[in-house]
Amino acid sequence: MATILRPQSEIEIPKTLFVDRSSPLLTIDWPSLYPGGYEVPLGANGETYLNVTKYRRVNVLVGPTKAHTVFLYMGKIQPNTLSAVYQWAPDRNVHTFDVVGPEIMLFLSSPFDKTTPAEKVELWLYLTS
Predict the structure, then answer these.
(1) How far is residue 60's CA from residue 32's CA, in Å, rounded to a whole number?
(2) SS3 state of residue 30
(3) Which domains does the chain have, with CATH numbers?
(4) Through-space distance between the first and last CA atoms of the chain, rounded to whole angstroms
(5) Residue 33: in which H helix or E strand, if any?
(6) Are 66 and 115 in contact (CB under 8 A)?
(7) Neighbours of 126 (CB within 10 A)
(8) Residue 32 main-chain phi, psi, to 5 deg
(9) In this predicted structure, what is the pLDDT of residue 80?
(10) Which of 10, 101, 105, 107 is the most exposed place for a label (fewest CB within 10 A)?
(11) pTM, 2 dp
(12) What does the radius of gyration of the chain's CA atoms come to, in whole angstroms?
């Protein structure tokens, strides 16, 4: 009697990446950035954009901050920008999005008051496949 071997279904191993800006905290000098904002360093060498082609979902948490808006850009960032923009007020909640582009960038807009002092901000980004 012959044994029939059935092909094993491939198992996808999840890919994850955790960008932790809570240890140490990000130091943001708001007066020097006014009226613009802060491009969050996401890469290991301080790059402000991150390649996310291996991932399907992005989760972002921004701790207490005086920034008035968080912007998440997804799409083609470098060298020319064509991206979708998601924005929300900092609220200490995890915000989850489907990845829609090859790169992401996170931006914190300056507070409305130029005299806002520098602060330390806790932030993390978690990518999953």
Answers:
(1) 25
(2) helix
(3) 16-128 (2.60.120.680)
(4) 43
(5) helix 30-33
(6) no
(7) 17
(8) -80, -15
(9) 79
(10) 10
(11) 0.85
(12) 19
Question: Contact 104/52 with Cβ under 8 angstroms?
Answer: yes
Instruction: List the pLDDT tens digit at each of the 129 positions of the chain.
Output: 667 766 666 666 678 999 998 888 999 999 999 889 999 999 888 899 999 999 999 999 999 999 999 999 999 988 877 899 999 999 999 999 999 889 999 999 998 888 899 999 999 999 998
Distances (CA, A) of 68 to 36, 46, 57, 99, 107: 11, 23, 25, 24, 11
CB 70 within 8 A of CB 39: no
Token digits of residue 125: 């980004």
Strands (E), 30-122: 37-39, 49-51, 57-62, 69-76, 82-88, 94-98, 103-109, 119-121
Six token digits for residue 18: 């955790």
